[in-house]
Design a protein that fits this description.
Distance between the termini of chain A: 91 Å
Radius of gyration of chain A: 27 Å
CATH superfamily of the domain at 61-156 in chain A: Cytochrome c-like domain
Order of helices and strands of chain A: HHHHHHHH
Number of helices of chain B: 12
Largest sheet of chain A: none
Low-confidence stretches of chain B: none
Number of helices of chain A: 8
Low-confidence stretches of chain A: none
Strand content of chain A: under 5%
Number of strands of chain A: 0
Largest sheet of chain B: none
Shape of chain B: extended
Structural class of chain B: mainly alpha
Oligomer: heterodimer
Strand content of chain B: under 5%
Chain lengths: ~170, ~220
């Protein structure tokens, strides 16, 4: 065996050995534990006063149909378990023993500024946990707009519905 | 004197049967074992720190997938719920349940629960949840009857051939965007056809099976 072929063979052996672990590469993936230097200082907690990248405050957007639709979708995901689909506080989790939240149609909440609902979504209120990590600032305003729509519909009458759409309510 | 003794026939037969057996075993190892559940971990139920039931929370209580997997629409990772998400309800409900002791401990010690991964992809595959959601691929297409699983199990092989079966012919796996998170959705006569949905979502299967779609 010449020196040359020995070098080639060992290079091939090294290359083949590296093939082994492509499925488990040394890189950080979500929810995988860190290794090496990072593992020494784990969990890496952010310093005090750090604001999440997507936690930038958003000013209230103009109320449009698409905003209300977005608000309805987000409300149905995150709020209905307790507040119910119509916002009267009779949600499924309340049936299971969770303290009942107030209905949105009480006078105190009708008088409350929009910022109040925004802050409650972000920071929680009473036994309600904060939803800041799951409902982004823009979506909070969408939910607030939808809550206002629920408040308006709470004492709606059949006369408020356009005549050609009344049939859909029966 | 005979060349072959009286035991020669037996030896030849034994060798033939042995070779046949070896051949069959090889076939089995090559074609059957790799696709068996033993190898793919299909239907395997890993042990979890808390025996969480999707059946109870999704089908029983009606929680939306996104209540806990909040980043599934915007990120490659669906997102595992923080302990505080569990405690949103369980600070008030089942507060003394022994099953939930690890959750309470996690909150008290400020240490994340470490769930066992059910769906593992090799590191050279770059899967992204958000694009599949945006193109109308329902959760159950990959996660099986997740809404009816008392304990979470792996519903597919996750073999590349399985990925490609859909990437080459996506139409039968698409649904309207409103139904993506419905674990019990069934195609009805009113549902737009797969071809219509492909057109609506601008899905072009010709480039969908390019290497670079999943490998970088």
């Amino acid at each position: 065996m010449t020196v040359r072929s020995a070098i080639l063979l060992s290079a091939l052996a090294i290359a083949l050995a590296a093939c082994d672990n492509m499925a488990n590469q040394r890189k950080r993936l979500p929810y995988e534990l860190p290794y090496g230097e990072q593992a020494k200082n784990w969990p890496a907690l952010p310093p005090d006063g750090v604001v999440a990248r997507d936690e930038e405050p958003v000013s209230p957007p103009p109320v449009t149909m698409s905003l209300l639709k977005r608000g309805q979708e987000r409300f149905d995901i995150y709020c209905t378990p307790c507040h119910s689909l119509i916002g009267d506080g009779d949600g499924m989790i309340v049936h299971r023993g969770f303290p009942r939240p107030p209905s949105y149609s009480i006078q105190r909440l009708r008088d409350a500024p929009a910022q109040h609902f925004y802050d409650v979504i972000a920071n929680g209120y009473g036994v309600m946990f904060p939803y800041a990590d799951r409902v982004a600032p823009a979506d909070r305003w969408a939910i607030v707009a939808y809550i206002r729509a629920l408040q308006a519909s709470a004492d709606g009458r059949l006369d408020d519905v356009p005549p050609d759409q009344r049939g859909t309510l029966q | 004197m005979a060349v072959f003794g009286p035991k020669a026939n037996l030896a030849v037969n034994a060798a033939l049967v042995g070779a046949g057996g070896l051949f069959l075993t090889l076939l089995l190892m090559i074609w059957v074992v790799p696709v068996s559940g033993y190898n793919t971990l299909e239907r395997y139920v890993p042990v979890q720190p808390v025996p969480f039931s999707h059946k109870h929370h999704v089908s029983g209580l009606g929680l939306d997938c996104r209540y806990c997997h909040a980043t599934v629409e915007v990120s490659q990772n669906a997102g595992m719920p923080a302990t505080k998400v569990c405690m949103t309800c369980h600070s008030q409900i089942w507060t003394n349940a022994a099953l939930l002791a690890p959750v309470r401990q996690s909150l008290a010690e400020d240490k994340s629960l470490r769930w066992t991964r059910v769906y593992t992809l090799p590191d050279y595959v770059y899967f992204d949840h958000s694009i599949h959601i945006a193109k109308g691929v329902g959760c159950t297409e990959c996660h099986g009857p997740i809404g009816d699983m008392p304990l979470t199990w792996k519903a597919t092989t996750l073999y590349m051939s399985w990925c490609l079966s859909c990437h080459r012919n996506p139409a039968p796996h698409l649904r309207p965007l409103n139904d993506v998170f419905d674990p019990h959705w069934r195609r009805s006569p009113e549902t737009p056809s797969g071809a219509q949905l492909m057109a609506a979502y601008h899905i072009h299967p010709k480039t969908l099976s390019d290497c670079g779609v999943c490998h970088r």
